[in-house]
Amino acid sequence: MTFFDRFVSCTAAGSGSQNWFGTDDTDEKITCRVYYRLSRDTGECALLYSNLMDSTYADGSHSHANFVPGTWTIHSLRAGRAVSCTMKAAAQPESFARVTFGGMEEKRVNPGEIFACDPFPFTARRGEYMCVEMTFSGARIPCHTESLLPAFRLEKGRWVYSTQMPFPSMAGTLSKGETRLGFIGDSITQGIGTPRNTYTHVAALAQDALGEKVAVWDLGLGYGRAHDAALDGGWLYKARHNDVMVVCYGVNDLFQLGDADLLKRDLTYIVRALKLSGVKVLIQTVPPFDYAPEYRDRWLSVNEYIRKELSKEADALFDNVPVLSRSGDEPWLSRWGAHPNAKGNAAWAKAILPVIRKLL
Q1: DSSP assignment of 173-220
Q2: pTM score, two decimals?
Q3: Do residues 166 and 247 both lie within one domain?
């Protein structure tokens, strides 16, 4: 059985490989911690990692989709339970579970490798935190620069906020037959725009509303593009391992690539690829983003295509524009901020949940 056959996401946090950082001393051992608020009770868990960039970061000059950082080493990995955690300080877990790879504490991570640890006992309650502590070394290390999670690096005996560490692609717990619901898209899907560590973005609100029979996995990443996913690398590989996928792309494609026809083709590829894998697809329109005049016609054209054509290939359509736009006369202007704030995400979740429920 594969990792995906046995485990489902136990957090609604957005997390993945978005960027990479370099180290001058490849033998230097670095210790870091990241904290995930649990969306369900756990008993046995496992962590999934990817040494392959899911999305493009910024303009792609430093890191782009399917970029391979290279070889690096995990020297130790452990998971601890924390009752609570803030962005200001690294909470000290009550105890730690040792995590291994094929029974070994150390793991050499190969270029482009997507891998999971051995299952480990981890008993915690919904609303508590899983602290993932890793000691690693290497020249080029994957990370999630725009993470909203409490993340810290040990420097001279003190825990200092830092996102320069490998983040799990999924913190998983043993499946009890839950429906796997995934969200994939850019920073708006990830939840940027909502306060850090608050879990007030759409994916987290959907998890809260849908309960224990649904396991939500947020695959949203800042700067992500439909074109990244349509390259059919690690990002879409993860998306294929869901029962239902909510897809929302386009802002970065319009800004970075500027080709409406390419965006239409990429969105079509994503929908068809997921459908061929047996995944139900809920396609969303491209959200408002206070577009300048040179982008408006392209945005309108893509959304018309999604509503009239691509929706016929998907299992459902959700038009987020009426919820997120400031004005019917100027629908490209955002009501809740270009990256919707917590109030905007709440309105969005309330509107989209009836559509999601029909697909579960």
Answers
A1: EE-SS-EEEEEEESHHHHTBTBPTT---SHHHHHHHHH-TTEEEEE--
A2: 0.97
A3: no
